[in-house]
């Protein structure tokens, strides 16, 4: 026995030398026990259980009913009795580098504000518990690379360059000569060759070529569009053919990437269902030709039934409309929660006359109250669709589309909380919302091996709340701690500070 023991000691000494040579990579893991929280994890039907969660480095190592007697000797203890521990939230529809309230030419004139904003973006998402975000359109990779290199940031995934058609949405925001540079994955549609520039090679703009580029660039999804235009472009933009979209769906399917279709009308969502896309990236607030209907008309119900039957992912994105409505709410910029998610200098600019351009553009002289009411009717249509889908157990995916346009009403992090309030107000249940923002989202983007639940082996992305999110949507406004890859962050430390 003593011989064995001596051998062990010798081996330990050798091991210690080896560990020393290898450096910190082989050092003892950083351990934290989160003790006594009610753990709510979406793979279980219950409303939570009091459990202890061990984090080792960036992983969840154990979830136990009883705390080991020696726990405090091996690990930092975080007392969380009376609080609620959930998986980190996932927002699967964001545009990280777009600056709310600024047109592209304005950004060039306010580089300092743009940079200050982009430094705050990853912090604001974390502040509200978003530990995973998916950027659906990468036009310029540099701002995203900078966010991924920031000291505190969510896990950032992307769909690479999106797949518009020539002169289709959203390319018209850029001057014609830059559109293929900004959107290198613009598609050649063989049955509509007319808009395709002669100097471009159709072969490099096939669905297959675009999907291959996305995959090679590390993209986890494919974003495309069916939009006839709104505002100045209303009804004027070309849309893809069904044949082209079926080609996108086939190419993405072979690469095991989900296809997200920008579609917010009855016509566009019909097109998405007919062509087999995986996810509808917006709610349906345009019911044309049934916009005057008081309740969801049978024709739209029939489409929503197909969305449910086929288990198509549904990002309701009500805050696209809610964020427009906030343009016409004079008290909005005074809210403390607005001030916490953007730099003070940007907030000051939002109060300037120059920054009112988008509000003026939308209103065309109409008074605030009339705009607020008109937008409210559009929001109500979107909400009725959410209610119908919620009653029929649709596969909701939580996505905010932050920012959906140049509105100050779509600010990072906070926008998620506002979206949640709209969804619950429309009739989504708290459990549906919780699943949409955790496990359903993780599964839809094939990330459920890594995130989405509080289970051993998962990445330690966790949020501690002061209330149960299965009892009240306000729980999501009571973030008390966030762990990103095992690193604990204090929400206060993520808020925008005075310069
Ligand atoms: Zn979007």
What does this protein structure show overall?
With 499 residues, this protein is of the alpha/beta class. Helix content is 36%, strand content 14%. It has 18 helices and 15 strands. It has helices at residues 2-22, 71-74, 104-109, 111-127, 141-148, 179-182, 207-216, 242-254, 266-275, 298-309, 319-325, 336-339, 344-350, 357-363, 368-391, 414-426, 430-436, 439-444; strands at 31-39, 49-56, 59-64, 76-79, 84-87, 89-94, 130-135, 155-158, 222-225, 259-262, 279-280, 313-314, 462-465, 479-484, 487-489. Strand 7, helix 5 and strand 8 (155-158) form a beta-alpha-beta unit. Helix 8 (242-254) crosses helix 9 (266-275), helix 9 (266-275) runs parallel beside helix 10 and helix 11 packs antiparallel against helix 15 (368-391). 46% of the residues are buried. Residues 1-25 have low confidence and may be disordered. The structure holds zinc ion. Residues 93, 95, 136, 401, 404 line the site of zinc ion.
